[in-house]
Amino acid sequence: MITARQLFILGFLTWSVTAFASGDPLTLADAVNLAVSQAPDLSARQSRVEAAEALVIPAGRLPDPQLIAGVENLPSNGMDAWSFGRDFMTMRKVGLMQSFPSQAKRRSEKDAAQAMVSLAESQATQSRVEVTQAVAQAWAARYAAEVSLKTLLDLRPELTLQVDLARAALAGGSTSASDALSAQAAVADLDDRLLDARREVASTRAELARWIGDAADRPLGPPPAFRELSVGDAELLSSLHHHAALLTYDAQIAAAQSEIAVANADKRPNWSAELDYARRGPGFSDLVSLQFSVSLPLFSSTRQDPLIHAKHAAVRELEAIRENELRMHTAEITTMLSDWHSAKDRVDLYETERLPLARQRSELALAGLRAGRMEVRQTLAVLSDELSIEHSYAEQLKTLGQTWAYLHYLSSPGVVP
Length: 417
Description:
Strand order of the largest sheet: 1-2-3-4
CATH architecture: Up-down Bundle
Low-confidence stretches: 1-22, 413-417
Distance between the termini: 11 Å
CATH superfamily: Outer membrane efflux proteins (OEP)
Helix content: 55-70%
Structural class: alpha+beta
CATH class: Mainly Alpha
Largest sheet: 4 strands, antiparallel
CATH topology: Outer membrane efflux proteins (OEP)
Strand content: 5-15%
């Protein structure tokens, strides 16, 4: 649920930060959709899928037939040298030859081509997930940076007021020059923080522009429900095998296993047929020939078997890599969940207790300074505490938004709630 404080911040940001261009508010869902439609990497991945799909069509089909044409037994010396018609053995031949690979080989080639399509599709899905996570985290970082800038802008008038009150107190002899200088130094320090905050806003806007171009100049819309995940922790951890990062390894293993099937099929005999028509000279009969040939994989121990062994080793390597990735992925998600829960609880604490208390203390301190009941240094300390709390709040908002973006888009780009 969006708090009244967040709504106020977003309303102010549409006009208080002059670096922002006018336009419709940019929601996180808008940013994700724009990034997915514009990312060059996704376009490249889609082209790879189309290429893999095209290779499925010829896979497993019979090789093209071969045309045979030539002359046999042409005399090269004697009375009949270079004559096509005087020697009974001379033939002008034309024919066709067709190879017939084993059914197992053709089927395995078809399966291997389809496995490459699945691999290309899983890689495209993983890239899409990575893009959505990156742009969603960039949006959340910009949102937090703007909250921080808005906070600093809000506190500056109070510090300026303190400087004026300190100068008036100095003129009246009720405070020291050191206190007045401290107040002025606090304003200078805040201005320095404002410069850094504007730099952070510009930096996060540039990172967002990397994914969505000029649309990053639009003011931000309200954030999604960063405090809510579409699935629970247990379900999220139990569905690891369906996450895009691991699906790619599954597809790689399946592709490698299909190559084992292709290598095993090479141990099956292939055969071919050849049909020839031979024309001889006048007075001699024309001839027709039909012959068959069969491959004999008799030496598989030194030819096919080593290749099969290498393919099995490649599968075992991929399985080990996948297991390592599963462990790393599990640890990363567990950490992200812990960070998200911590940030959610801390943001709630800041909004319900720490921020209101800090604001009340600052208001009381300023009132006490006006009434002469508090010293300048005491008031500066109170406002400094509020500034630190506001900064910590913005950092927790950033953590909350970025961890939510990572967890929400783990499997595939979904609908932003």
